[in-house]
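Quick bug: 50S ribosomal protein L7ae-like protein output formatted oddly.
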Amino acid sequence: MSYDKIKQAAKLSIGTKKTTKVVEQGKAVEVFIARDADPRITSKMANLCKKTGVPVTCVDSMKQLGKACGIDVGAAIAAIVNE
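Here's what came back:
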């Protein structure tokens, strides 16, 4: 899995609440979900993305996703946002 897409994105939404908001607003281009994140959180996001037609990419770990997003902590969910 290449994290280049995340690193090159002009705008990111990091975290469950923010990402849910951008998906609901139709602004999310692609959502990234960490495989080691809490399934109670990630399954809701996966269903929301399915409903709204947003592509979902699963990544290996929260730590790697957080790093790709440029933060020092793990991230369960992140999205590339369309301006």
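Actually, after a second look the formatting is fine. The longest strand covers residues 28-34. Closing.
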